Amino acid sequence: MMHLINSKVLALLSALMLGGLFCYIFQSYRLAADVIPESHEFYLLAPEHQQYEQPSILHGRTDVVTVTPWLAPVVWEGTFNPVLLDSIYKVKNITVTATVFAVGKYIMFLKNFLETAEQHFFVGFKVHIYVFTDRSNEVPQVRMATGRQLTVRSVPSSKRWQEISARRMELIQTLIEEQLPNHNDYIFCLDVDSKFHGRWGSESLGALVAVTHPGYYRDPRSRFPYERRPASKAYMASGEGDFYYCGGAFGGLLQEVHHLAKTCRSNFEADTQEGIEAAWQEESHLNRYMWINKPSKVLSPEYLWQDFKPKNPEVHIIRFSGVVKNYAEIRPNT
Ligand code: UD2
Protein backbone atom coordinates (compact mmCIF):
# COMPACT_ATOMS: atom_id res chain seq x y z
CA MET A 1 0.00 0.00 0.00
CA MET A 2 2.79 2.38 1.05
CA HIS A 3 4.61 1.45 -2.12
CA LEU A 4 1.54 2.37 -4.24
CA ILE A 5 1.21 5.82 -2.56
CA ASN A 6 4.91 6.51 -3.16
CA SER A 7 4.67 5.76 -6.86
CA LYS A 8 1.52 7.95 -7.16
CA VAL A 9 3.35 10.85 -5.47
CA LEU A 10 6.31 10.24 -7.75
CA ALA A 11 4.10 10.29 -10.84
CA LEU A 12 2.43 13.53 -9.68
CA LEU A 13 5.77 15.17 -9.00
CA SER A 14 7.12 14.11 -12.40
CA ALA A 15 4.01 15.52 -14.10
CA LEU A 16 4.44 18.81 -12.24
CA MET A 17 8.12 19.00 -13.17
CA LEU A 18 7.41 18.22 -16.82
CA GLY A 19 4.64 20.84 -16.85
CA GLY A 20 7.01 23.40 -15.33
CA LEU A 21 9.68 22.57 -17.86
CA PHE A 22 7.21 22.87 -20.74
CA CYS A 23 6.00 26.30 -19.47
CA TYR A 24 9.61 27.49 -19.13
CA ILE A 25 10.59 26.36 -22.63
CA PHE A 26 7.40 27.78 -24.15
CA GLN A 27 7.89 31.11 -22.37
CA SER A 28 11.54 31.38 -23.47
CA TYR A 29 10.53 30.59 -27.03
CA ARG A 30 7.87 33.30 -26.92
CA LEU A 31 10.37 35.78 -25.53
CA ALA A 32 12.93 34.96 -28.18
CA ALA A 33 10.35 35.25 -30.93
CA ASP A 34 8.46 38.34 -29.70
CA VAL A 35 11.09 40.66 -28.38
CA ILE A 36 12.82 42.71 -31.02
CA PRO A 37 15.94 44.27 -29.51
CA GLU A 38 15.13 47.96 -29.24
CA SER A 39 18.47 49.31 -30.31
CA HIS A 40 18.95 46.90 -33.18
CA GLU A 41 20.70 48.63 -36.02
CA PHE A 42 18.03 47.85 -38.61
CA TYR A 43 14.97 48.54 -36.50
CA LEU A 44 14.12 52.08 -37.55
CA LEU A 45 10.99 53.10 -35.70
CA ALA A 46 9.66 56.55 -36.60
CA PRO A 47 7.30 58.46 -34.31
CA GLU A 48 3.67 58.46 -35.47
CA HIS A 49 2.18 61.56 -37.11
CA GLN A 50 5.53 63.15 -37.82
CA GLN A 51 5.38 65.53 -40.78
CA TYR A 52 8.34 66.11 -43.06
CA GLU A 53 9.17 66.82 -46.67
CA GLN A 54 8.04 64.08 -49.03
CA PRO A 55 10.97 61.88 -50.07
CA SER A 56 11.51 61.13 -53.75
CA ILE A 57 13.24 58.36 -55.66
CA LEU A 58 13.34 60.52 -58.77
CA HIS A 59 14.88 63.73 -57.53
CA GLY A 60 17.91 64.25 -55.40
CA ARG A 61 21.59 64.91 -55.74
CA THR A 62 22.85 64.09 -59.19
CA ASP A 63 26.36 65.53 -58.93
CA VAL A 64 27.64 62.79 -56.62
CA VAL A 65 27.22 59.04 -56.14
CA THR A 66 25.08 58.29 -53.11
CA VAL A 67 25.30 54.50 -52.98
CA THR A 68 28.24 52.09 -53.27
CA PRO A 69 28.22 49.04 -55.58
CA TRP A 70 27.44 46.91 -52.50
CA LEU A 71 24.46 49.20 -51.77
CA ALA A 72 25.76 51.06 -48.76
CA PRO A 73 24.65 54.70 -48.57
CA VAL A 74 27.26 57.38 -49.20
CA VAL A 75 26.30 60.27 -46.95
CA TRP A 76 26.35 63.72 -48.55
CA GLU A 77 24.52 66.86 -47.53
CA GLY A 78 21.09 66.77 -49.19
CA THR A 79 20.68 62.98 -49.04
CA PHE A 80 19.10 62.71 -45.59
CA ASN A 81 16.55 64.36 -43.32
CA PRO A 82 18.33 65.19 -40.03
CA VAL A 83 15.13 65.78 -38.06
CA LEU A 84 13.62 62.45 -39.12
CA LEU A 85 16.84 60.56 -38.41
CA ASP A 86 17.25 62.16 -34.99
CA SER A 87 13.71 61.22 -34.04
CA ILE A 88 14.35 57.60 -35.06
CA TYR A 89 17.62 57.28 -33.14
CA LYS A 90 16.55 59.29 -30.06
CA VAL A 91 14.11 56.59 -28.92
CA LYS A 92 16.83 53.97 -29.06
CA ASN A 93 18.49 55.73 -26.11
CA ILE A 94 21.95 55.11 -27.54
CA THR A 95 25.27 56.41 -26.26
CA VAL A 96 27.81 57.52 -28.82
CA THR A 97 31.40 57.06 -27.68
CA ALA A 98 34.23 58.97 -29.30
CA THR A 99 37.91 58.22 -28.81
CA VAL A 100 40.59 60.80 -29.35
CA PHE A 101 44.35 60.59 -28.79
CA ALA A 102 46.34 63.59 -27.65
CA VAL A 103 49.86 62.38 -26.99
CA GLY A 104 52.81 64.77 -26.56
CA LYS A 105 52.36 68.16 -28.19
CA TYR A 106 49.09 67.08 -29.82
CA ILE A 107 47.43 68.07 -26.53
CA MET A 108 47.36 71.61 -27.98
CA PHE A 109 44.57 70.54 -30.37
CA LEU A 110 42.29 69.08 -27.73
CA LYS A 111 40.54 72.28 -26.55
CA ASN A 112 39.31 73.18 -30.02
CA PHE A 113 38.32 69.60 -30.73
CA LEU A 114 36.26 69.32 -27.53
CA GLU A 115 34.67 72.77 -27.77
CA THR A 116 33.55 72.28 -31.35
CA ALA A 117 32.34 68.72 -30.59
CA GLU A 118 29.99 70.32 -28.05
CA GLN A 119 28.51 72.46 -30.81
CA HIS A 120 28.24 69.90 -33.59
CA PHE A 121 28.88 66.25 -32.65
CA PHE A 122 25.67 64.35 -31.81
CA VAL A 123 24.06 67.35 -30.15
CA GLY A 124 21.11 66.19 -27.99
CA PHE A 125 22.44 62.61 -27.70
CA LYS A 126 24.31 60.87 -24.91
CA VAL A 127 27.98 61.26 -25.77
CA HIS A 128 31.02 59.88 -23.96
CA ILE A 129 34.41 61.13 -25.10
CA TYR A 130 37.51 59.19 -24.08
CA VAL A 131 40.74 61.16 -24.26
CA PHE A 132 43.95 59.13 -24.30
CA THR A 133 46.92 61.24 -23.29
CA ASP A 134 50.29 61.26 -21.55
CA ARG A 135 49.54 64.80 -20.30
CA SER A 136 46.43 64.36 -18.16
CA ASN A 137 47.14 67.55 -16.22
CA GLU A 138 46.95 69.59 -19.45
CA VAL A 139 43.50 68.37 -20.47
CA PRO A 140 41.43 71.57 -20.81
CA GLN A 141 38.24 72.16 -18.82
CA VAL A 142 35.40 72.27 -21.33
CA ARG A 143 31.79 72.78 -20.28
CA MET A 144 29.74 69.85 -21.49
CA ALA A 145 25.96 69.71 -21.86
CA THR A 146 23.83 67.35 -19.78
CA GLY A 147 24.20 63.76 -20.98
CA ARG A 148 27.71 64.35 -22.27
CA GLN A 149 30.84 63.31 -20.40
CA LEU A 150 34.58 63.05 -20.75
CA THR A 151 36.95 60.41 -19.42
CA VAL A 152 40.71 60.84 -19.48
CA ARG A 153 42.91 57.74 -19.77
CA SER A 154 46.65 57.85 -19.30
CA VAL A 155 48.91 56.36 -21.94
CA PRO A 156 52.72 56.33 -22.05
CA SER A 157 54.59 58.91 -24.12
CA SER A 158 56.34 57.80 -27.26
CA LYS A 159 59.41 58.84 -29.20
CA ARG A 160 57.92 57.88 -32.58
CA TRP A 161 54.69 59.37 -34.00
CA GLN A 162 54.21 56.25 -36.10
CA GLU A 163 53.95 54.23 -32.90
CA ILE A 164 51.41 56.61 -31.33
CA SER A 165 49.23 56.46 -34.38
CA ALA A 166 49.57 52.67 -34.63
CA ARG A 167 48.90 51.94 -30.96
CA ARG A 168 45.45 53.48 -31.24
CA MET A 169 43.95 50.22 -32.50
CA GLU A 170 45.20 48.31 -29.48
CA LEU A 171 43.80 50.90 -27.07
CA ILE A 172 40.45 51.05 -28.84
CA GLN A 173 40.20 47.24 -28.70
CA THR A 174 40.95 47.22 -24.97
CA LEU A 175 38.57 50.09 -24.23
CA ILE A 176 35.67 48.27 -25.89
CA GLU A 177 36.47 45.03 -24.06
CA GLU A 178 36.87 46.61 -20.63
CA GLN A 179 34.60 49.63 -20.50
CA LEU A 180 31.84 49.39 -23.07
CA PRO A 181 29.75 46.28 -22.52
CA ASN A 182 26.61 47.44 -24.39
CA HIS A 183 27.39 46.19 -27.85
CA ASN A 184 24.37 47.92 -29.35
CA ASP A 185 26.00 51.32 -28.88
CA TYR A 186 28.16 53.18 -31.34
CA ILE A 187 31.73 54.46 -31.35
CA PHE A 188 33.71 56.86 -33.52
CA CYS A 189 37.52 57.08 -33.46
CA LEU A 190 38.73 60.52 -34.44
CA ASP A 191 41.96 62.46 -35.01
CA VAL A 192 42.53 65.21 -32.44
CA ASP A 193 44.15 67.71 -34.80
CA SER A 194 40.73 68.50 -36.23
CA LYS A 195 37.71 70.68 -35.59
CA PHE A 196 33.97 70.32 -36.11
CA HIS A 197 32.41 73.00 -38.32
CA GLY A 198 28.98 71.53 -39.01
CA ARG A 199 26.53 68.86 -37.91
CA TRP A 200 27.93 65.34 -37.43
CA GLY A 201 24.96 63.37 -36.15
CA SER A 202 22.68 60.36 -36.43
CA GLU A 203 22.97 60.24 -40.23
CA SER A 204 26.48 58.84 -39.70
CA LEU A 205 25.35 55.84 -37.64
CA GLY A 206 25.82 52.40 -39.11
CA ALA A 207 27.23 48.98 -38.33
CA LEU A 208 30.62 49.75 -39.89
CA VAL A 209 31.32 53.31 -40.98
CA ALA A 210 34.23 54.60 -43.06
CA VAL A 211 35.09 58.09 -44.31
CA THR A 212 36.49 58.68 -47.79
CA HIS A 213 39.79 60.54 -47.63
CA PRO A 214 39.49 64.14 -48.92
CA GLY A 215 42.81 63.88 -50.73
CA TYR A 216 41.98 60.88 -52.93
CA TYR A 217 38.26 60.63 -53.63
CA ARG A 218 38.66 62.07 -57.12
CA ASP A 219 41.59 59.81 -58.02
CA PRO A 220 41.82 56.46 -59.80
CA ARG A 221 42.68 53.67 -57.35
CA SER A 222 46.12 53.20 -58.88
CA ARG A 223 47.02 56.48 -57.13
CA PHE A 224 45.72 55.47 -53.70
CA PRO A 225 48.58 55.27 -51.16
CA TYR A 226 47.70 51.71 -50.15
CA GLU A 227 50.45 49.47 -48.83
CA ARG A 228 51.92 47.90 -51.98
CA ARG A 229 54.45 45.43 -50.58
CA PRO A 230 53.11 41.85 -50.63
CA ALA A 231 55.07 41.09 -47.46
CA SER A 232 52.73 43.31 -45.43
CA LYS A 233 49.35 42.20 -44.07
CA ALA A 234 47.99 45.52 -45.33
CA TYR A 235 48.95 44.66 -48.93
CA MET A 236 46.62 45.78 -51.69
CA ALA A 237 47.47 44.67 -55.23
CA SER A 238 46.92 46.94 -58.20
CA GLY A 239 43.32 46.74 -59.39
CA GLU A 240 42.11 46.13 -55.84
CA GLY A 241 40.29 48.43 -53.44
CA ASP A 242 37.12 50.54 -53.51
CA PHE A 243 37.94 53.93 -52.00
CA TYR A 244 40.80 55.33 -49.98
CA TYR A 245 39.50 55.73 -46.44
CA CYS A 246 40.81 58.00 -43.67
CA GLY A 247 42.56 56.67 -40.61
CA GLY A 248 41.42 59.89 -38.91
CA ALA A 249 37.74 58.98 -38.64
CA PHE A 250 35.94 55.64 -38.60
CA GLY A 251 33.33 54.00 -36.44
CA GLY A 252 30.21 51.89 -36.12
CA LEU A 253 28.66 49.49 -33.66
CA LEU A 254 30.97 48.58 -30.77
CA GLN A 255 31.10 44.93 -31.77
CA GLU A 256 32.07 45.81 -35.35
CA VAL A 257 34.72 48.35 -34.37
CA HIS A 258 36.07 45.88 -31.83
CA HIS A 259 36.57 43.34 -34.61
CA LEU A 260 38.19 45.96 -36.82
CA ALA A 261 40.57 47.18 -34.08
CA LYS A 262 41.50 43.64 -33.07
CA THR A 263 42.20 42.60 -36.67
CA CYS A 264 44.20 45.73 -37.55
CA ARG A 265 46.19 45.45 -34.33
CA SER A 266 47.03 41.81 -34.91
CA ASN A 267 48.00 42.45 -38.56
CA PHE A 268 50.10 45.42 -37.50
CA GLU A 269 51.89 43.26 -34.93
CA ALA A 270 52.42 40.45 -37.44
CA ASP A 271 54.07 43.02 -39.74
CA THR A 272 56.29 44.23 -36.90
CA GLN A 273 57.44 40.64 -36.33
CA GLU A 274 58.50 40.58 -39.96
CA GLY A 275 60.24 43.95 -39.62
CA ILE A 276 57.75 45.82 -41.82
CA GLU A 277 55.65 48.93 -41.12
CA ALA A 278 52.80 49.68 -43.52
CA ALA A 279 53.07 52.86 -45.59
CA TRP A 280 50.44 54.75 -43.55
CA GLN A 281 50.53 52.67 -40.38
CA GLU A 282 47.04 51.79 -39.11
CA GLU A 283 45.41 53.70 -41.97
CA SER A 284 46.88 51.13 -44.38
CA HIS A 285 45.55 48.25 -42.27
CA LEU A 286 42.17 49.97 -41.98
CA ASN A 287 41.98 50.27 -45.77
CA ARG A 288 42.75 46.61 -46.23
CA TYR A 289 40.14 45.70 -43.58
CA MET A 290 37.44 47.85 -45.19
CA TRP A 291 38.12 46.32 -48.57
CA ILE A 292 37.31 42.86 -47.24
CA ASN A 293 34.71 43.91 -44.67
CA LYS A 294 32.67 46.38 -46.69
CA PRO A 295 31.45 49.35 -44.64
CA SER A 296 27.68 49.49 -44.27
CA LYS A 297 27.80 53.28 -44.51
CA VAL A 298 30.35 55.47 -46.26
CA LEU A 299 30.71 59.09 -45.20
CA SER A 300 31.63 61.63 -47.88
CA PRO A 301 34.68 63.89 -47.42
CA GLU A 302 32.35 66.39 -45.70
CA TYR A 303 33.13 64.27 -42.63
CA LEU A 304 36.88 64.80 -42.80
CA TRP A 305 38.17 67.65 -44.87
CA GLN A 306 41.57 69.34 -44.57
CA ASP A 307 41.74 73.05 -43.78
CA PHE A 308 44.50 73.67 -46.31
CA LYS A 309 42.33 72.38 -49.17
CA PRO A 310 39.89 74.75 -50.89
CA LYS A 311 36.32 73.38 -50.77
CA ASN A 312 35.35 71.43 -53.90
CA PRO A 313 31.92 72.28 -55.40
CA GLU A 314 30.35 68.89 -54.52
CA VAL A 315 31.16 69.51 -50.86
CA HIS A 316 28.24 71.65 -49.70
CA ILE A 317 29.23 71.64 -46.07
CA ILE A 318 32.42 70.84 -44.19
CA ARG A 319 31.49 69.07 -40.97
CA PHE A 320 34.90 68.06 -39.60
CA SER A 321 38.30 69.14 -40.85
CA GLY A 322 41.98 68.64 -40.05
CA VAL A 323 43.70 71.85 -38.97
CA VAL A 324 46.86 73.06 -40.65
CA LYS A 325 49.84 71.93 -38.60
CA ASN A 326 53.59 72.07 -38.69
CA TYR A 327 54.63 68.41 -38.45
CA ALA A 328 58.27 69.26 -37.63
CA GLU A 329 57.13 71.30 -34.63
CA ILE A 330 54.61 68.95 -33.08
CA ARG A 331 55.80 65.40 -33.77
CA PRO A 332 58.37 63.76 -31.49
CA ASN A 333 60.36 62.56 -34.55
CA THR A 334 60.46 63.39 -38.25
C1 UD2 B 1 46.99 60.55 -41.32
C2 UD2 B 1 45.62 60.14 -40.79
C3 UD2 B 1 45.77 59.61 -39.39
C4 UD2 B 1 46.70 58.41 -39.38
C5 UD2 B 1 48.03 58.80 -40.02
C6 UD2 B 1 48.87 57.58 -40.30
C7 UD2 B 1 43.69 61.44 -41.57
C8 UD2 B 1 43.09 62.77 -41.65
N1 UD2 B 1 44.80 61.34 -40.81
O1 UD2 B 1 47.29 61.71 -40.58
O2 UD2 B 1 44.53 59.22 -38.86
O3 UD2 B 1 46.10 57.33 -40.06
O4 UD2 B 1 47.87 59.44 -41.28
O5 UD2 B 1 49.82 57.40 -39.35
O6 UD2 B 1 43.19 60.49 -42.11
N2 UD2 B 1 48.99 61.61 -32.42
C9 UD2 B 1 49.31 62.11 -31.16
N3 UD2 B 1 50.60 62.52 -30.94
C10 UD2 B 1 51.57 62.47 -31.89
C11 UD2 B 1 51.24 61.96 -33.15
C12 UD2 B 1 49.93 61.54 -33.40
O7 UD2 B 1 48.48 62.18 -30.27
O8 UD2 B 1 52.72 62.88 -31.61
C13 UD2 B 1 47.60 61.13 -32.66
C14 UD2 B 1 46.64 62.31 -32.81
O9 UD2 B 1 45.37 61.93 -32.34
C15 UD2 B 1 46.61 62.52 -34.31
C16 UD2 B 1 46.70 61.07 -34.81
O10 UD2 B 1 47.55 60.40 -33.87
O11 UD2 B 1 45.43 63.19 -34.69
C17 UD2 B 1 47.24 60.90 -36.22
O12 UD2 B 1 48.51 61.50 -36.35
P1 UD2 B 1 48.76 62.67 -37.38
O13 UD2 B 1 47.62 63.60 -37.36
O14 UD2 B 1 50.10 63.26 -37.15
O15 UD2 B 1 48.80 61.88 -38.72
P2 UD2 B 1 48.57 62.46 -40.21
O16 UD2 B 1 48.28 63.91 -40.18
O17 UD2 B 1 49.69 62.03 -41.07
UniProtKB/TrEMBL annotation:
Pfam families in UniProt: Glyco_transf_6 (PF03414)
Record localization: Membrane
Primary subcellular site in the record, as a coarse category: membrane
SUPFAM superfamilies registered for this protein in UniProt: Nucleotide-diphospho-sugar transferases (SSF53448)
Membrane topology classification: Single-pass type II membrane protein
Residues where UDP-N-acetyl-alpha-D-galactosamine binds: 101-103, 106, 191-193
Keywords assigned by UniProt, alphabetized: Glycosyltransferase, Manganese, Membrane, Metal-binding, Signal-anchor, Transferase, Transmembrane, Transmembrane helix
Annotated Mn(2+) binding sites: 191, 193
Gene3D superfamilies listed in its UniProt record: Spore Coat Polysaccharide Biosynthesis Protein SpsA, Chain A
Top-level taxon in the UniProt lineage: Eukaryota
GO cellular component: Golgi apparatus; membrane; vesicle
Binding-site list for an alpha-L-fucosyl-(1->2)-beta-D-galactosyl derivative: 213, 283
Note describing how the cofactor binds: Binds 1 Mn(2+) ion per subunit.
Any Gene Ontology biological process: carbohydrate metabolic process
Family: Belongs to the glycosyltransferase 6 family.
Protein name, per record: Globoside alpha-1,3-N-acetylgalactosaminyltransferase 1
